[in-house]
Design goal:
The protein is of the alpha/beta class. Helix content is 11%, strand content 21%. The chain has 6 helices and 43 strands.
Length: 628
């Protein structure tokens, strides 16, 4: 019992100690009052004004309160809509955070000469503030210090100013000039962003980087001199500077950031001879740009395309470009996606030698492009590459290109001929959609797979005479089957290839007959519910076809049965199994002759997926059965 009592007393004493400490802390944090002002004391017993309770329109900040020297103002006049002018005492060193934020009637501020800092949001949204003279000893201008002050027209940055933080003059829409007298100034991002009336600004003589968004949306800026020491221009630094007509890049400049000059519609010429890194959309939408000079060392690295020397969208929508020459020494492996997208006046491009990939949509929408020679080194042409290039009449695909991307020529209304090498095996979805001048399609024997909607909108597709029983064939390729087909459906004899998703809409088919001549089967020919085969060239057995195709899905019954037509063992294709077929099979097994895919399939008499002596036994059994 006594132990319990001791424990209780000890706990009570501990609680009392902590309570007294908390009370003392609360008392020390209490605001003090002197007239119309509330204030606190800092560690040096200087007063920090935190609130103004008066109703005066013209206010003079006192130098002392209750004998304490006033050195800082923090949030004291925030959202005060009555105050029209303020004179700040000479003792004040810091106009702190949100000191006069939202003072919508404030027109004039008189700063003390020894003021060293104006804090973040100090005069944010002071919409009536017009005349601002920054003090000579000012060192730091805080984040959004004067942002969205639409009537400020002129600012002089004093000599001692060393740092301007983010968005300091953001959206000061009437600011026309900002005179920089600072000896050593560090600028942050978006300092003059959306200052639509700013016409000029002198950057510091010594700076390494132009911060991102520094002049974003400065529509009245006509020219800018970049110091020789600058090596990097940041993200969106000059985006939307629609009157910027000339810019000289220093020798030390090596990097141009994302969208740095996007939308600079008056920019006419750029020389990038010394630039090593250029990021996405750097000059996107520069509609007045007519001349671009690249350096041999230009390089861009992304996690998607290592070794690329340009970035995606870098010159997209530059409608003033008419010709583009990468130069003889420009070495790269890729032309990135959408590099020249929407360059409607681009007529010719000389691509660099040695590239192996032209990426997605590189020339999409280049409606004037008529002359382009694809280097022989290219092995891949990606999707939408020449989409809506309405002036192109003929394309020669290099010999090592294995596949054509989806919608690669969609909307090329004057395209008359596409010359494909035998190396090409795949043509992507919608490759020739709306190619209304294309009368012949490069569906040669070497093609092993074609995408869905391959020739929609072409004259061949639109001609009803080309449709047979609601199916569209081109040479030995089945490209389309309409959803009106029902019941039993037989693919035409001699068909070699079935296009991707060819039976996608055929929910009424109950039995599908596929001839032995079919050697190439597209992806998802039943429409995305399951794949028939994992490879484009089919060499399987009848059982594997049944396993992959004769499936009913829970939501939609597509097919109940899949059958092969043709006679097993009929190698010579005369419709019957004879001794001649047996002789051909023996020569093939002995290695004396080679079979085509169709012949191998016919020779696989027991349908085990292999051609060997067991097929000879099966064929002999058939011959003996027919004799008996």
């Amino acid at each position: 019992m006594r132990k319990i009592m001791y424990f209780f007393l000890a706990a009570l004493m501990t609680f009392s100690c902590f309570s007294s400490v908390a009370v003392n802390a609360a008392e020390s944090a209490d605001y003090l009052t002197c007239g119309d002002y509330q204030y606190t004391l800092d560690e040096s017993d200087n007063a920090i004004i935190t609130k103004y309770t008066g109703s005066e329109t013209d206010v003079t900040i006192p130098s002392t309160l209750d004998g304490y020297t006033v050195t800082e103002i923090v949030g004291a006049f925030c959202e005060n809509e009555s105050i029209e002018s303020v004179v700040i005492a000479d003792t004040v060193r810091i106009v702190g955070r949100k000191a006069f934020m939202g003072c919508s009637s404030l027109k004039n501020v008189t700063f003390p000469e020894n003021l060293s800092e104006i804090g973040y949001f100090a005069f944010h949204k002071c919409v009536s503030l017009k005349d601002v003279e920054l003090p000579k000893m000012l060192e730091v201008l805080g984040e959004e210090a004067f942002s969205e002050c639409p009537l400020i027209t002129h600012i002089v940055l004093p000599e001692m100013l060393s740092k301007i933080q983010n968005d300091a003059f953001y959206a000061c829409t009437s600011l026309e000039s900002c005179e920089n007298r600072s000896l050593c100034l560090q600028l942050s991002v978006n300092v003059f962003s959306e200052c639509v009336s700013l016409k000029s600004f002198t950057l510091p003589d010594v700076m390494l980087e132009i911060p991102g968004g520094l002049f974003y949306g400065c529509k009245s800026l006509t020219s800018i001199e970049i110091p020789d020491t600058v090596y990097k221009i940041g993200t969106m630094a000059f985006e939307g500077c629609t009157n910027l007509s000339e810019i000289n890049f220093p020798v030390e400049l090596t990097e141009i950031g994302y969208r740095s000059f996007a939308g600079c519609t008056s920019l006419k010429s750029v020389s990038l001879e010394h630039v090593l890194y250029m990021k996405e959309a750097a000059f996107m939408g520069c509609t007045g740009l007519t001349n671009v000079k690249l350096g041999d060392g230009l390089y861009y690295y992304s996690k998607h395309s290592a070794g690329v020397k340009l970035a995606r969208y870098v010159f997209s929508d530059c409608t003033g470009l008419e010709t583009f020459d990468f130069g003889p020494n420009f070495a790269t492996k890729h032309i990135p996606a959408f590099t020249f997208k929407g360059c409607t006046n681009l007529k010719s491009v000389k691509l660099p030698a040695g590239i192996n990939t032209i990426c997605r949509g590189t020339f999409s929408g280049c409606s004037s492009l008529s002359n382009i020679e694809i280097p022989i080194s290219v092995t891949s042409l990606e999707s939408k590459l020449f989409e809506n290039c309405t002036s192109i009449t003929e394309i020669n695909v290099p010999p090592r290109v294995e596949s054509l991307g989806n919608y690669i020529f969609r909307g090329c209304t004057n395209l008359k001929r596409v010359n494909l090498p035998r190396w090409t095996k795949t043509i992507g979805e919608g490759a020739f959609v709306d190619c209304i001048s294309l009368e012949e399609f490069p569906l040669t024997d070497s093609i092993k797979r074609v995408g869905s909607d391959l020739i929609t909108g072409t004259p061949y597709y639109n001609d009803p005479d080309n449709w047979e029983n609601d199916a569209l064939y081109y040479n030995d390729c089945l490209l389309y089957v309409k959803n009106t087909v029902s019941g039993e459906y037989s693919v035409k004899d001699g068909t070699r290839l079935l296009a991707d998703k060819v039976f996608e809409c055929c929910s009424k088919i109950t039995e599908l007959n596929i001839p032995y001549s079919v050697t190439c089967v597209g992806e998802e020919i039943l429409g995305g519910h399951f794949d028939i085969i994992p490879k484009w060239e089919f060499n399987g057995t009848r059982r594997s076809w049944r396993y992959r195709v004769a499936i009913t899905t829970p939501n939609r019954v597509l097919l109940k049965n899949v059958q092969f037509t043709g006679v097993p063992g009929d190698i010579d294709g005369d419709g019957v199994v004879t001794a001649a077929d047996c002789l051909l099979l023996r020569k093939y097994i002995a290695g004396e002759i080679e079979f085509t895919i169709e012949e191998r399939r016919a020779a696989d008499c027991n349908r085990d997926g292999r051609v060997n002596a067991l097929d000879c036994l099966e064929m002999c059994h058939k011959l003996l059965s027919s004799v008996s």
